[in-house]
Amino acid sequence: MTKTITTGVALLLLLGSTHCFSQTATDPPNPLKKARLQLMEGSRLYNPQAGLQTFQQLATEGNPEAMNGLAQIYIQGLGVPTDDVLAIEWFEKAAQNGYGKAYYNLATLYREGVSIPKDLTKAVSNFEKAAKAGDINGYARWGELVKNGLGTTRDYVLAMDIFEQGAALGNAQCIYAQGYLHYKGFGVPQDYNKALAYFRIAADKKSPIAIYMLGYCYSNGYGVTIDKEQASQYYNQAADLGFKRAELELAQPESENAEPNQIKTVSTPLAEDVENAPIEVPKKIKKVKHKIAKGDISGEYTGHLMRYDWSGQNIITTTPLKITLDQDGQALAGIWTEQEGDSLAFKATLEEKRILFNDSKIDRLNRYVEPVMKSYKFKEAKLQLLENEDDIYIVGNLQLYNIKQHENEKPMYLILERKLNDEEKEPVANPANTIVSHLVVYPNPVTSNSFKLSYELTIPTEISIRIYDFMGLLKSTQKLTTTGTGLQEQIIPFNASAGNYILNLYYNDQVIKTILIKK
Question: What pTM did the predictor assign?
Answer without folding.
Answer: 0.80
